[in-house]
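Quick one:
INPUT:
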């Protein structure tokens, strides 16, 4: 028995952003239609405090896929060649349990997370949105800038980060229409906002919001952290990827619920429900819409399966006897 091993560079070649956005729409629909089994992500911090290891198993019917993502998160790696997130996605044959492929999970996550935000943006943001505000200058900031351009005609990108020099370097690499700003309030003036930082405490204020905006809240993914204050949620029509995960792991949602700024009933539902027509997305041009992203196993499975099938067809990757 052989397993195909696919590295990060091969993932980049085999998973174009536009294709991945279409896959994320299908992932959202699969969640809404109940075709997915995906336990809430489990994480084990290391006693040293240097990082954690997390697991995301899942199964989806139609197509029939089985797999798990195992990732380490070491924040001290940020800015190095290693990156803060590392690990594989393992695909198995759902008929007999045999390992099928091992795929670089960091690269899949970088692409599919931004693609999911783009799919949510396409479902919720105004069609005439023309400016993008990006908060952060790491891997997800880069991939989100590319992804949002795929679903909206973006004329200007405003980038903010705690280190202005790094934000300026990001802007210089990203293109002539990308500009670094010194204040998060300046970036918050854009039509579409992507929050991709590792902030532990809120830096984004709901008072900055204006009618018609759309916000993707991506960076905070554990119960103890939040990028946004509770007023941001209170002013927005909130959609999630997977409600059980959002309630268990979304630190921003948990804080707003605990503060009494929102109730669970104020969460509209999932983006998949918008795509399948069971709930509304944007109702009026002045709505402020918000997508809280925690990530789903189904996103990893569909993206990894697409990579594995393309690799098999092209003979890409290394076959290893297992």
């Amino acid at each position: 028995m052989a397993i195909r091993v696919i590295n990060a560079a091969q993932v980049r070649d085999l998973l174009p952003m536009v294709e991945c956005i279409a896959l994320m729409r299908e992932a959202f629909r699969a969640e809404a239609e109940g075709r997915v089994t995906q336990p809430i992500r489990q994480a084990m911090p290391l006693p040293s405090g240097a990082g954690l290891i997390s697991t995301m198993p899942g199964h989806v019917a139609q197509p029939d896929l089985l797999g798990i993502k195992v990732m380490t998160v070491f924040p001290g790696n940020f800015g190095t060649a290693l990156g803060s997130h590392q690990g594989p996605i393992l695909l198995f044959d759902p008929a007999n349990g045999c390992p099928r492929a091992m795929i670089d999970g960091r690269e899949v996550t970088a692409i599919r997370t931004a693609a999911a935000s783009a799919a949510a943006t396409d479902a919720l943001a105004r069609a005439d949105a023309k400016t993008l505000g990006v908060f952060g200058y790491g891997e997800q900031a880069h991939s989100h800038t590319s992804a949002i351009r795929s679903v909206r005609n973006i004329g200007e990108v405003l980038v903010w980060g705690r280190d202005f020099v790094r934000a300026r370097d990001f802007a210089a690499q990203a293109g002539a229409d990308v500009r670094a700003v010194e204040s998060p309030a300046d970036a918050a003036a854009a039509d579409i906002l992507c929050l991709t930082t590792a902030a532990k405490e809120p830096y984004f204020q709901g008072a900055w919001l204006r009618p018609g905006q759309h916000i993707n809240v991506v960076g905070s993914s554990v119960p103890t952290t939040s990028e946004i204050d509770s007023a941001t949620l209170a002013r927005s029509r909130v959609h999630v990827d997977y409600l059980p995960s959002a309630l268990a792991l979304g630190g921003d949602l948990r804080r707003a619920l605990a503060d009494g700024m929102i109730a669970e009933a104020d969460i509209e539902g999932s983006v998949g429900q918008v795509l399948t027509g069971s709930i509304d997305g944007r109702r009026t041009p002045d709505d402020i819409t918000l997508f809280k992203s925690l990530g789903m196993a189904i996103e990893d499975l569909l993206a990894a399966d697409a990579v594995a099938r393309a690799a098999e067809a092209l003979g890409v990757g290394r076959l290893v006897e297992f």
